[in-house]
Design goal:
- The complex is a heterodimer.
- Chain A is mostly helical.
- Chain A is built from 13 helices and no strands.
- The radius of gyration of chain A is 26 Å and the shape is globular.
- The N and C termini of chain A lie far apart (66 Å).
- Chain B folds into two domains: 186 residues, 3-Layer(aba) Sandwich (D-Maltodextrin-Binding Protein, domain 2); 209 residues, D-Maltodextrin-Binding Protein, domain 2 (3-Layer(aba) Sandwich), CATH 3.40.190.10.
- Chain B is built from 19 helices and eleven strands.
- Chain B has a five-stranded mixed beta sheet.
- The chains are: A mainly alpha, B alpha/beta.
- Chains A and B meet through α1 and α12 of A and α2, α4, α5, α18 and α19 of B.
- Chain A: InterPro entries: ABC_transporter_permease (IPR051393), MetI-like (IPR000515), MetI-like_sf (IPR035906).
Chain lengths: 315, 473
């Protein structure tokens, strides 16, 4: 008992110093398991020939070195060529979608800043696409875009008389790009609206009053007060929209099914299809790793440029 | 580095510690119990970590290969969607599973998996080793799944446990795995393609009998395709449906999509002609509505039921027609057309694939004896009659076929086709990939036809060559 009393201060100190780490350990372990381990496994898979013959016990799949990467990067062969085209399509699509989402969201948020009757109702209405389950929303669009019985063609051709009596295919061929873009913007802009609306709440009203007293018109106010004030929020908003849109799998999958038309073949769906066409999950993993690298590069570059730009502004 | 709480907490902590010290007069005792608690917490964290790691690596561990019997009172069964919707399947199967439970005391947990998910779910189960005990598979996947080694092989011993291999129709067993290997599954429901036609529309157009050859089909089709109505329906956006048709057309052109060595031969002249002939029904003959190019959710059946199209090529469509509001007798059934110069038969007069559903046992099952009992139950004469009657399919069990319920006009056509003029899809490990690659090629060709772009021998060949290159990688 007496030794125990003498030992106590030391063990107490040890206990006190290790306890925080012990408490952090579960979070650390979960982070590793949920985030890093799957990523590392994906990277490992990309160096193997993981076909249907090995998926049951994929530790037996043979190592192939750089073969998977050479295959998907060789743009003179069908696999690489298709990946490149899909990548470029995705870039164009993301650019347009993020741009439109941001523009619509910001414009709507600025208009909703003034208080008027029915503002709450309108705000709630604007958020509906964001609140709907993706599958339900997109499958509805798929029905609307149907050639023979779809609402879009009915309105365009039968009621407005645009483009002649022949119905247009929206889900096949080149038009599918515009169909996909429409659904993506419809689904994405309420998020931009929500975030910008929240950011606008932080701008003190005196700024606008002062500007108005000095004779600044509405455009000047938006340009000089509103936009600079939400700059930090916009930086994150655009990045998040970019990552979500670039990686969007649900929208094209629900709209087009397993194989999207070439014009709307986004890279995430393309990777899925490539993995399942050949049941060669190694090639699919190699494509995913390349995509991950690309997104990392873009994100890092974007943050570097925008953060430096803003810092200069404040100096 | 030692973690130190910020200064403002320290006073608070000190006060609380003092309170605790007063509550526990012996500090040594308190210290030890706290140590024990800390150690217990550490052990718990370590244990859960190890357990999680073990689960994560579950897919990588090799297993004994034949299943075990560690959970003898329970089975999990993945059923495919055979009825009009998932709820209908639940309603059909639940009483039968109850019967099985009464006979054997084994409780079967049923999950009806939609077709869009089934193959992915099976692949995920294969990769993780965590899956059902017994499952339905599309019979065309048999060889692909056989190659993964995830399914229990049906050797003589296993067949003996369910009453023997010769209880089943040969062609059905032939579509349960690669030739020369033990089948990966046993047949459960058999189906074949037939030509369904709308009697009233035929009457109005003055057509006496359904077309028996493709020339007759085109001639009849031109009579029917007018005033916003069309002769034939197709599911141009449905990859599997495209494959089933392309396969039969290829057979009729004396071609195969895989050569004798099991290598893809998608762009052989015969295969190109076959695919072109099918797409030409829309592109050149104009007896399929262009809108069908984007159909992938059985819209063609709805068009048929509402009188927009006069014919469809389908397998066991009767129950779907009824669910769309048609009455028995509104439609007629005939064999699928063949090339001129002979009745449906083998070789170039093949007019259907051997369609159907197989029942497989997952090798990782923890109730292998129960699984075999369940397969025996599902393939028993009595259950075969009940289930196939309900689903409008043909029993692959010979003894069950004699039931008068399978002698209706509809089912007689299907039964004859299965018996005399149906061929199984290529039983090669790459079959599933073939469905996706060539199915997509046909889908793109239909899109071309629908948009009015020319579909030529060259354009068909280019698409099929591309599909083959995807496979070769």
């Amino acid at each position: 008992m007496s030794t125990g009393s003498r030992m106590f201060p030391k063990s107490a100190r040890l206990r006190r110093s290790s306890l925080p780490y012990l408490l952090l350990l579960p979070a650390l372990v979960l982070e590793l398991l949920i985030h890093l381990v799957p990523m590392v496994m994906g990277i490992l898979m990309s160096f193997r020939r993981l076909t249907q013959f090995f998926i049951r016990d994929w530790s037996r799949a043979p190592w192939t070195g750089r073969d998977n990467y050479e295959l998907v990067l060789d743009v003179n062969r069908p696999v690489g060529e298709a990946l490149l085209r899909s990548f470029l399509t995705t870039c164009l699509f993301t650019l347009l979608s993020v741009g439109l989402c941001w523009l619509l969201g910001t414009a709507a948020a600025v208009f909703m800043q003034e208080s008027f009757r029915g503002r709450g109702l309108l705000r709630a209405l604007f958020l509906v696409p964001y609140a709907l389950p993706v599958y339900a929303a997109v499958i509805t669009w798929a029905f609307m875009f149907q050639r023979d019985n779809g609402l879009v063609n009915h309105v365009l051709h039968d009621q407005l008389g645009l483009g002649g009596a022949d119905h247009t295919f929206w889900l096949l061929g080149d038009n599918s790009f515009w169909a996909l873009l429409t659904v993506s913007v419809w689904k994405g802009w309420p998020f931009a609206f929500l975030i910008v609306t929240a950011a606008l709440q932080n701008i003190p009203g005196e700024l606008y009053e002062a500007a108005a007293l000095d004779g600044a018109g509405i455009w000047r106010q938006i340009h000089r007060i509103t936009l600079p004030s939400v700059g930090a929020v916009n930086q994150v908003l655009v990045l998040v929209l970019f990552l979500w849109t670039f990686n969007d799998f649900n929208t094209p999958f629900v709209l087009f099914g397993k194989s999207a038309p070439e014009a709307a073949d986004l890279v995430s769906l393309h990777i899925y299809q490539s993995s399942f066409v050949t049941w060669n999950f190694g090639t699919g993993s190699a494509m995913s790793v390349l995509l991950l690298l690309f997104l990392l590069l873009v994100t890092a570059g974007y943050l570097l440029v925008t953060t430096r730009g803003r810092r200069n502004e404040h100096v | 580095m030692r973690w130190m709480p910020p200064k403002r907490w320290r006073r608070d902590i000190a006060t609380r510690a003092e309170n605790i010290r007063q509550a526990f007069p012996d500090p040594a005792e308190r210290g030890r119990s706290a140590m024990r608690r800390t150690r217990a917490a550490a052990a718990a964290v370590t244990a859960s970590l190890l357990a999680a790691a073990a689960t994560a690596c579950g897919g990588g561990t090799a297993d004994s290969g034949g299943g075990s019997n560690t959970a003898p009172k329970e089975l999990t069964y993945w059923a495919s969607n055979q009825g009009p919707d998932l709820a209908a399947d639940q309603a059909v199967l639940t009483p039968e599973l109850k019967k099985f439970e009464e006979q054997t005391g084994i409780k079967v947990k049923l999950e009806v998996v939609p077709w869009s998910d089934l193959l992915n779910r099976i692949l995920a189960a294969t990769a993780s080793g965590q899956g059902p005990d017994v499952l339905n598979i599309g019979n065309t996947w048999s060889s692909s799944l056989q190659a993964t080694g995830a399914l229990l092989p049906w050797n003589a011993e296993n067949f003996a446990a369910i009453g023997g291999r010769d209880r089943f129709v040969d062609s059905a067993i032939g579509s349960a795995g690669a030739a020369g290997q033990d089948p990966a599954a046993v047949p459960l429901y058999s189906m074949a393609y037939a030509l369904y036609y709308n009697k009233k529309m035929f009457q109005e157009a003055g057509i006496a009998k359904p077309p028996a050859t493709w020339d007759e089909m085109v001639a009849t089709g031109r009579l029917l395709s007018k005033d916003g109505k069309w002769a034939l329906g197709a599911e141009g956006g449905n990859l599997s449906e495209n494959i089933h048709q392309a396969f039969v057309f290829a057979k009729q052109h004396g071609a195969d999509f895989f050569d004798a060595a099991g290598k893809p031969a998608f762009d052989s002249p015969g295969a190109v002609d076959a695919v072109k002939q099918y797409v030409d029904l829309m592109a050149k003959d104009k007896i399929i509505a262009p809108g069908n190019a984007e159909y992938a959710q059985n819209q063609s059946l709805q068009d048929f039921a509402t009188g927009k199209t006069a014919m469809v090529l389908w397998q066991s469509a009767a129950s779907s027609f009824k669910s769309h509001g048609m009455k028995e007798g509104d439609w007629g059934v005939a064999p699928v057309p063949v090339p001129a110069g002979g009745a449906p038969g083998t070789g170039t007069h093949t007019n259907s694939m051997v369609a159907g559903i197989n029942l497989a046992v997952f090798k990782n099952t923890d109730n292998i004896d129960g699984s075999l009992k369940f397969v025996k139950f599902m393939t028993s004469d009595e259950e075969q009659k009940i289930l196939n009657k309900t689903y409008g399919s043909i029993p692959p069990v010979k003894a069950a076929q004699s039931d008068p319920a399978f002698a209706t006009d509809d089912l007689t056509v299907l039964r004859t086709t299965l018996g005399t003029s149906a061929a199984p899809l290529p039983q090669v490990p790459h079959e599933s990939q073939f469905e996706t690659a060539v199915g997509t090629a046909v889908k793109e060709l239909f899109a071309d036809a629908a948009a009015g772009r020319p579909v030529t021998t060259e354009s068909v060949k280019a698409k099929l060559t591309k599909a083959q290159q995807q496979m070769a990688s």
